[in-house]
Structures are given as structure tokens and as C-alpha cells.
Amino acid sequence: MMKHVVAQALADATGRDAGDPLAHLAASLLLARAGFLSLMKRGHTGLNAAMAGTPYA
User: Fold this and answer.
1) I need a surface site. Which of 8, 13, 25, 28 has the fewest CB within 10 A?
2) For the residues of 1-57, what is the DSSP string, one character each?
3) How confident is the model at residue 57 (pLDDT cuts 50, 70, 90)?
4) CA 24 from chain center: how many Å?
5) What's the predicted TM-score (pTM) here?
């Protein structure tokens, strides 16, 4: 799973144990943020398409 890979990389970078709960929390937050930004971009693209040709574009 991607979260485990990111958590492992974070733990390795800081010299902490692979099972460090803070590394897993940080990995979850990083991946959630990336997912949220991706959704926002798609939503923005959809909004632009829906508003094309209107005074609100």
C-alpha cells in the first residue's frame, strides 16, 4: 500500500522505527492532501467546462 511506503520513507528519513505512529499519521495526511488537491483540480476543470460560454466563465 502506498501509505506504508510513504510512512517507511518518512521513518527512514528521520531514523525512526518503521512502525512509528507519527510516520503513519504524516503519511496519511500527505496522501489525503494529495487526493484532496486532485479532486479540487478535477472539480475546477468541471466547473470551467460547465461555465464555458456563460458570463460566469
Assistant:
1) 13
2) -HHHHHHHHHHHHHT--TT-HHHHHHHHHHHHHHHHHHHHHHHHHHHHHHHTTSTT-
3) confident
4) 14
5) 0.65
pLDDT tens per residue, range 5-46: 999 999 999 999 989 999 999 999 999 998 898 888 888 898
Angle at 42 between CA 23 and CA 40, to 5 degrees: 50
Which CA distances in Å does 48 have to 3, 35, 44, 52? 32, 20, 6, 6
**Alpha carbon 40 to chain centroid, angstroms:** 11
Neighbours of 7 (CB within 10 A): 25
Cβ contacts of residue 26 below 8 Å, gap of 6+? 7, 10
